[in-house]
Every structure is written in C-alpha cells, then in structure tokens.
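This protein record is not my work; I was only asked to verify it. Where you disagree with what is written, explain briefly why. This is what I was given:
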Amino acid sequence: MRISFTFFLASCIWVTTLGQIRYGDNKTAGHYLAARGFKMYYETYGKGEPLLFIHGNGGSLGNFSNQIPFFSMHYKVIAVDSRAQGKSADAGDSLTFEMMADDFNTLLDSLHLDSCYVIGWSDGGINGLLLAIRHPGKVKKLAITGANLWPDTTGLTPYVYSLIVQSSAELRKKQQTPDIKNQLKISDLDLNEPHISLEQLHTIHCPTLVIGGDHDAIPSRHTMLISENIPQSYLWIIPNSGHSTPIFKKEQFNAVISDFFRDPFRKIEGAATFQ
C-alpha cells in the first residue's frame, strides 16, 4: 500500500500529549474564530509577547507538542489548525497558501495583535513567508523550517515530489466523499503550490531564521536560496536531520529559536565575518 504525502507528514508526529495536556484537543485552551467562510480552531497558552505556530501539510497544532510548553513559559503561544486541517473544517473547493496567510492575519486582527513572532514548519513555513510578504507589519521575527518556494524537484527532493504526485493520483481514483475531497485538496496544495518569487522574498524585512535538515525533504541548496534572498536572515542547516526538525532535534530547535527571538538581529559583514 502506498503512503500519501499528507499521511506521511502527519504520521511523523507521534507525541501530541505532554503531561496531562493534550495539545490540539484541549477544551480549556481551545477557541474557534468564525471568519472568512470557515471556523478556525486555535489554542492559546502562556503569557507574554504573542507567538504564532503554523503546522505542516495534513497536520494540526498538536504537531508542536514539543514546542508549546517550552515557549509558553515566556510567550503567549497561539497555535492554529490551518484551514481544512485539524479541527478547522472547510467545505470549500479551493485552498491556497495565500488564503491561509490571510486567515492568520484575520486571526491576529481578531485578537487585537498588531504583530507577533512566528514559527512555521513545512507548509507552515510557506505560510509564514507569505504572512510576512502580504502583511509585513504583522511579523516581528520569523523562524521557518522545511519550507519551499515552488513545487518541483528543485524545491522538493525527487522522492518527495513523486510521493505527492502519487498521493493526489490515488485520491482521484477513490469515491469522492467529502473526506476524500478534503484530503485531495490538501495533497493538491503541495502538488501545485506555492509560487513565491525571489523578488517577493526581497520584500521581507523582519529578521528571519531559515532552517532545514541536511537530509530534508527540501534540498539544502533550496533552503540556502531562501535565506540568501531575505534581507535580514540567518541560515541554520541541522546536521544528521531530515524534515521533522521540531521532533527529532527538539532541544536544539527550541534553544536556537529562543535565542534568535531574544537577541537583536545583527548584520554580519566586513570584519564581523571573522567572528
């Protein structure tokens, strides 16, 4: 039996519960926002400056179970189920990254937040980039891992691109129930999108930490390309790592991003390159 790309990503997330808290299914912390034609589910934790978490394709906010308790000690964490995923059901036929970026902007507006820190994983990294492009004032600092700019074998490894093609093809063969249609909509998202230009990256002016595993589903050279085209960016390629950096490299991931959020961004050029 072939495995779908969305199921592959979701199945990487083994831990959705830490202690007595079930992230992604916590009635105490859970909320719905009815806006833009669907009900967006999100959970909030902690106090401090706001920090938005955006998960990957076919996942949910529970994918950040290794991060939410860590960051909620110093930030007000806002963890979201993206449109058509998790508990954010959406019966519409269309799904784009631009739609989702605008969803997150609407959520921030509803919470009366003029800006926030953002952590995005995979599709969530794409959404983070587009949030910073489309709503630049909303993103104070951005950390992304495993994001790509376009859907081909330069933005994805050939193996992963083939997996997405197979996933959408197999879903099209099935009886088109509402659930299958939704799965296909999510799979097709990564088959056909995103389409972010290097020129668009040049318009991102918030400090950005671009992360990738050295054996990621996204080729390292593509991750480097993203970093090179964002004016205020750092690049972190994690050795001995694949796509699931927030899980298998969780201690490093949390610590490095925490330092990035805390410390002022510095331009490293001239004599500073010897430091």
